[in-house]
Amino acid sequence: MADSTKYITQEELKQHNKHGDLWISIQGKIYNVSDWAKDHPGGEHPLLNLAGQDVTEAFIAYHPRSAWQYMDQFFTGFHLKDHSFTEVSKDYRKLVNEFTKMGLFEKKGHGVCFSFFFITLFFILSVYGVLCSDSILVHFCSGCLLGFLWIQSGWLGHDSGHYQIMTNQFYNRFVQILTGNCLAGISIAWWKWNHNAHHLACNSLEFDPDLQHMPFFVVSSKFFDSLTSHFYGRKLSFDSITRSLVSYQHWTFYPVMCLARLNLFAQSFALLLSKRKVHNRGQEILGLLVFWIWYPLLVSYLPNWSERVMFVMASFSVTGIQHVQFCLNHFSANVYVGLPSSYDWFEKQTKGTLNILCPSWMDWFHGGLQFQIEHHLFPRLPKSQLRKISPFVYELCKKHNLPYNCASFWEANVMTVNTLKTAALQARDLTNPVPKNLVWEAVNTHG
Prior knowledge:
Layout: E1 6-8, H1 10-14, E2 17-18, E3 21-26, E4 29-32, H2 44-50, H3 56-62, E5 75-80, H4 87-101, H5 111-132, H6 136-162, H7 169-184, H8 188-200, E6 228-229, E7 234-235, H9 240-246, H10 249-258, H11 260-272, H12 281-300, H13 305-328, H14 345-351, E8 355-357, H15 363-366, H16 372-377, H17 386-399, E9 406-408, H18 409-427, H19 438-444
Parallel strand pairs: 1-5, 8-9
Antiparallel strand pairs: 2-3, 3-4, 4-5, 6-7
Helix pairs in contact: 2-8, 5-6, 6-7, 6-13, 7-12, 8-11, 9-19, 10-13, 10-18
InterPro entries: Cyt_B5-like_heme/steroid-bd, Cyt_B5-like_heme/steroid_sf, FA_desaturase_dom, Fatty_acid_desaturase
Protein name: Cytochrome b5 heme-binding domain-containing protein
Membrane topology: Multi-pass membrane protein
């Protein structure tokens, strides 16, 4: 009996990779997700970035098994001709199945309870220190405690965006708004939009927003060609002002990280006030309003402007530790130019990430990011399980001769600064000129 299955080739599939025409392949079946893209919980960018490809590994990584039941409505009736999986892909999917059978995706541990306890404690102590003490030292420590609160709320917001940390979706959404919008002043909708794009396009200079920090930082001389950010939809112009700033980025890195929160505030408002579709926009804006009521009100209770500035700078600077942590995992790793490819998805995740070595009692400090390789390969896995699975991931990487990069917290900082320094010295090279202005001339005139 003749095979009645309808097939399309990979070249034909690649043609369906733009707005209004998004096709993907999962385990060889072709799905049309054009209309679904605008409602996709992970945002439109992940679908656009991987459209026209087989996305089996990425789909398995980011979706629970329950998601499969909804896929038939998008099935086109076509299958991918000559579809096959690499040995790495087969081993990866075996690990996913093993972890699922072990129930690791459901075992969240007590980390959420501990985090909420410390967030509540830090908030109470910070408010108490401002309202009930006249000591400058106590006010300074109160600002620092608020910074630690933001770090811990950031870990909870991160985790709740990847998997359901609460008993149901309602409470999970409540935690997202509370920890992100209300307590930290950062839109969880913006974070998910940004972070999902980062995961799917890990360390692509054109598609990963976590590497697009011009005019302040570049991690590669490839940015000197003025690449286009497909996330922000604009050209990242490497002009004379950018060159001036980048030339000293290894010196300005830590000071800028102390103020990095300002960028997150701005990005949150930019998204919520834009015409872009944002799910639950009203909740998001209300949450930000809560933050911009209680935080300025708390600061206003300090006796004078010098202490208010000190309090704000203390809270921002302590939170800067977390912003540095975000950079350590990727700045010194392998980068590339172009679209992310799902055909070497596993390899891209391992090459673009760096683990931070630390004892188990320091896991609270890193919030799960110390196992960045494991987190990128299994983003739905609760962070309490990442240490447990790391030996399995290491063995899989070893088996297929893939990097499993690790460094201590100190070493990772050195590596990051060296990456920035290398790009800074390349930016100073006057044999590769860009249009100059008075700022460039004044900073770089010698003798």
